[in-house]
Design goal:
The chain has 460 residues and is mostly beta strands. 1% of the residues lie in helices and 49% in strands. It has one helix and 36 strands.
Length: 460
């Protein structure tokens, strides 16, 4: 393993109503192509996983306080195109899966919790493999992998056989996604099972596949659009507060950001019509008002911007974060300094112009404002353990309660309705594991009119 050290901070041109402090993570990762945020060492603070296309590298960047230290996980992965972090072998330590465009490979690096990794090649011959993500797709208790392979136009699930260095079984979900670029996982129909969304640059399409359940699920295809020119990235998050995951995508040639909220029957909602050359996309509650916002990068504009969620009945205002990222591409959100506030990370350039940067956010609306949203109250806030969630004003939460982290991922849910009483969230995930300190969003829909109610809470 090679260790790389970078000093900070650096300054760049940026402007937005929420305050973001930019830091240079690296200027040596040649053509950063993907960024992922994950707490790799269990310290309650996200590390930044980066793939460097021209360097054939997968790198973990850690911020111990006054500098970023880079650990090279792999340096023989040509056209490294994406990375996913999770406990793939179930040993309690974080692992990394990655795709290689030029090698056509899917690999996993299993972490030992002490900074060392054991490599496994899951598959070869994946022509122009572009993206991988993961979740337990068949409720087996193991994290499975989902890939988008551009050269074969294929979306596939790779089922995890369990144990150390598990066996892997491929199931093709779709083989007509020409130029498949991106995959995302979320429960889009509210049945408790993880579904798949995908974007294809050559087919110009965004589609999703419903998980029918079982050890080897069938996948029911649903088209969202077949005319989004150069669809490049798809992500999911609950932007309307109804407890269900919604789908959003960006397109390189058409530009802009489009969303398909589940509460609108997946009708298309345009968040941004401009923004040409859009490549990266992520969800985060950047202004801390209890609603998920969207951030995106544009290679054409060399920019990172975010759009404030103002509901589905009006335009979302945009705010520039950085307008000087050469060939801006990868983007993610996380908490990189452990303060519980959502931060952004983006990258771009190649050779001497290569850059990876984080943007430390402090929110704007604040928890006091968010906790005043009618019909939902929590106590205490902040809390060292958990909180009591109550429905006030005579309303009941017919759709239950869901808790999300700052990246919009569901971490805990209560499926039953309650009225005039309270339930207790112990500050854990759905499996009972203690969640790291930070800011979480609690959402539920009232039975009267089905209006969404949201509130943010801080775990200490």
């Amino acid at each position: 393993m090679r260790i790389l050290v970078f000093l900070l901070p650096a300054t760049f041109a940026f402007s937005s109503p929420a305050s973001f402090i930019p830091w240079e993570v690296s200027s040596s990762a040649d053509r950063p192509s993907f960024l992922a945020a994950a707490d790799m060492n269990g310290n309650g603070q996200d590390e930044l996983i980066c793939t460097a296309w021209n360097d054939s590298m997968v790198i973990i960047y850690e911020n111990p306080g006054d500098s970023w230290t880079g650990t090279v996980v792999a340096d023989d992965f040509p056209g490294a195109s994406s990375a996913f972090a999770g406990d793939i072998d179930g040993d309690g330590f974080m692992d990394i899966a990655g795709t290689s465009w030029h090698a056509g490979e899917l690999r996993v690096w299993y972490g030992d919790g002490a900074g060392s990794f054991t490599e496994q090649t899951v598959a070869t011959g994946l022509t122009s493999a572009h993206e991988v993500t993961g979740s337990d797709m068949n409720t087996s208790g193991c994290i499975d992998l989902v890939t988008a392979v551009a050269g074969t136009g294929t979306i596939s699930v790779w089922y995890n056989g369990g144990g150390a260095l598990p066996s892997w079984t491929e199931q093709v979900v779709s083989s007509d996604m020409a130029g498949a670029r991106s995959v995302a996982i979320g429960d889009f129909d509210g049945d408790g099972l993880p579904d798949i969304a995908g974007a294809a640059l050559v087919s110009d399409c965004v589609r999703w596949w419903r998980n029918t359940g079982g050890e080897t699920p069938m996948w029911e295809e649903h088209s969202l659009t077949e005319s989004y020119n150069g669809a490049h990235m798809v992500r999911c998050g609950d932007i309307d507060g109804d407890g269900l995951q919604d789908i959003a995508a960006v397109a390189f040639f058409a530009g802009g950001i489009r969303a398909w909220p589940s509460s609108m029957g997946f009708q298309e909602f345009t968040i941004e019509a401009g923004f040409p050359g859009a490549l990266g996309l992520c969800f985060a509650d950047l202004d801390m008002d209890g609603s998920l916002d969207i951030a995106a990068t544009s290679e054409t504009e060399g920019a990172l911007k975010w759009w404030r969620n103002t509901g589905l009945d009006q335009p979302w205002p945009s705010h520039a974060v950085d307008t000087a990222i050469p060939d801006a591409w990868p983007l993610t959100a996380g908490d990189f300094n452990g303060d519980g506030m959502p931060d952004l990370a983006a990258g771009g350039g190649s050779g001497e112009t290569s850059t990876v940067r984080t943007y430390t956010g402090d929110g704007q609306a604040g928890l006091e404002e968010a906790s005043g949203t009618g019909g939902l109250s929590i106590h205490p806030n902040p809390s060292a353990r958990g909180v009591t969630i109550s429905s006030g004003g005579g309303g009941s939460f017919s759709g239950g309660i869901t808790v999300y982290d700052i990246r919009g991922r569901s971490v805990w849910s209560f499926d039953g309705a309650f009225e005039g009483s309270s339930i207790y969230w112990p500050g854990t995930d759905s499996s009972g594991g203690r969640l790291p300190a930070g800011t979480y969003r609690i959402a539920g829909a009232l039975s009267r009119g089905g209006e969404p109610r949201r509130v943010s809470v801080t775990l200490l």
